[in-house]
């Protein structure tokens, strides 16, 4: 089978559009980049002659930096657009921005936007490949992929594992993408949160729901903690951060209810003492939080490669 047939999409807009086979193909491809990134010479020419534009309407450290590193290590001309300095701040619409960028003929756009669906809208107005780097509370596909790679490298096949996603599920695009991906790969997914931080009709997601963290963590293989996203909250969702930590913060006492070798994950940035205790977060025998950061570059390299396969061939004679 030709490589392009293993991932036939023009864009990477969400996990929902992907098959289990496509997910596994990207994870397998990322494994090779993990090894490359640990060498002194980290460069390849997979994207030589291609241009990658990073368009972030929200601040980001991990995602933006890892996309930039991924593009540069693959040989792409990588351009950062500062939204704070751009015409968008002067009233330009998202579609105007898309059409302006499209006129410059980029090959790949990696876009983060605070509104759900905005990246999909932009993708309909450009000819290049688009990667969703997070849109509102909708999806964050590359985060779910790097989380899956982190689990797979430590635990082997994901099928049959029990994964608890804990915290602010309502506002989390990471939770949504992980729910979709983990279920596609055969994991059993639990959501643990107060009722105020769960989406409506959560029972239709095909997951188990717990409001008691101690019950929800019993016997789980993986614990994914989520940040309280205060910036997306209009109103009071929790009584106080102190009370939230008492009931839903991961500490040694609650961790003891999971399997003895359960892994601890967090997409970052962490609110220490709010959703996770520092002792737990820094436990090198259980925490894979820094593994997630490292593997993020490799996963984004794999995503860029599979999308580049479906771009028009470069004309080297021009």
Care to describe what's here?
It is a single chain. This protein is an alpha/beta fold. Helices cover 35% and strands 14% of the residues. The protein contains eleven helices and nine strands. The strands form two sheets. Strands 7-6-5-8-9 form a five-stranded parallel β-sheet. The longest helix is centred in the C-terminal third of the chain and has 20 residues, at 289-308. The radius of gyration is 20 Å and the shape is globular.
Flag low-confidence runs. none
- Cα-to-Cα separation, first versus last residue: 30 Å
From the spread of the alpha carbons, the general shape counts as: globular
Tally of separate helices:
11
Radius of gyration: 20 Å
Helix content: 25-40%
Strand content: 5-15%
Could you describe the largest sheet, including whether it forms a barrel? 5 strands, parallel
Overall mean pLDDT stands at: 92
Helix-strand category: alpha/beta
Spatial ordering of strands, largest sheet: 7-6-5-8-9
SSE succession: HEHEHEHEHEHEEHEHHEHH
Which descriptors would you attach to this protein?
alpha/beta; single chain; five-stranded parallel beta sheet; 318 residues; four-stranded parallel beta sheet
In short:
35% of the residues lie in helices and 14% in strands. By secondary structure, the chain is α/β, with parallel strands linked by helices.
Show the helix and strand layout.
Layout: H1 20-37, E1 51-56, H2 62-73, E2 77-82, H3 94-102, E3 108-113, H4 118-123, E4 129-135, H5 141-155, E5 162-166, H6 173-184, E6 188-192, E7 208-210, H7 213-216, E8 222-225, H8 241-248, H9 252-255, E9 263-265, H10 278-281, H11 289-308
